[in-house]
Amino acid sequence: xxxxxxxxxxxxxxxxxxxxxxxxxxxxxxxxxxxxxxxxxxxxxxxxxxxxxxxxxxxxxxxxxxxxxxxxxxxxxxxxxxxxxxxxxxxxxxxxxxxxxxxxxxxxxxxxxxxxxxxxxxxxxxxxxxxxxxxxxxxxxxxxxxxxxxxxxxxxxxxxxxxxxxxxxxxxxxxxxxxxxxxxxxxxxxxxxxxxxxxxxxxxxxxxxxxxxxxxxxxxxxxxxxxxxxxxx
Length: 233
What we know:
Mean pLDDT: 83
Number of helices: 6
Strand content: 15-25%
Number of strands: 6
Structural class: alpha/beta
Order of helices and strands: HEEHHHHEEEEH
Largest sheet: 6 strands, mixed
Radius of gyration: 28 Å
Helix content: 25-40%
Distance between the termini: 31 Å
């Protein structure tokens, strides 16, 4: 739309008329030069999926292998069941949302966080290179929890490891940036022995899960900072 403003000022109005005229003219010029002011800016979106796959690996003095796995199969089965209880999908999502994600993974101001209760199929995570949601947001990224693993080694002790993946798509279906890595920290209470506080042990899993993400996020930020700026077409 073109708005025309007359530049003729009657002498009878004096300086006051001139002042009002130029003020109105300046305002119209600003509005015409900034059409984006009147438009809504679509916020960025971060979509989060929890992990479905829980793993428990216990190794003794044999250092692993089929025999070691057979000896600890019952223990590992119990540990997997406990992991699934303490870190079910809602618990993973709640844990992540309790953190300052905006700072931890350098989200843009105003980013909307959208959670998905149903985990993605593990075998599809690396195969599918397009968006995992139906969102058409022009600023879109994903945070996927891929694996949750309890590990006990005769030498290194007990730990919880978590595999995370960040994918940034920008405004299309092509991945612009991806960072996939483990976060891992030691455990002191899980799995609880007979007579020990089972609730405290399960709570520890939740706390260490969050520490794992903080560790992952610190490495992710360094990776993001090291990205080369895109060349102009």
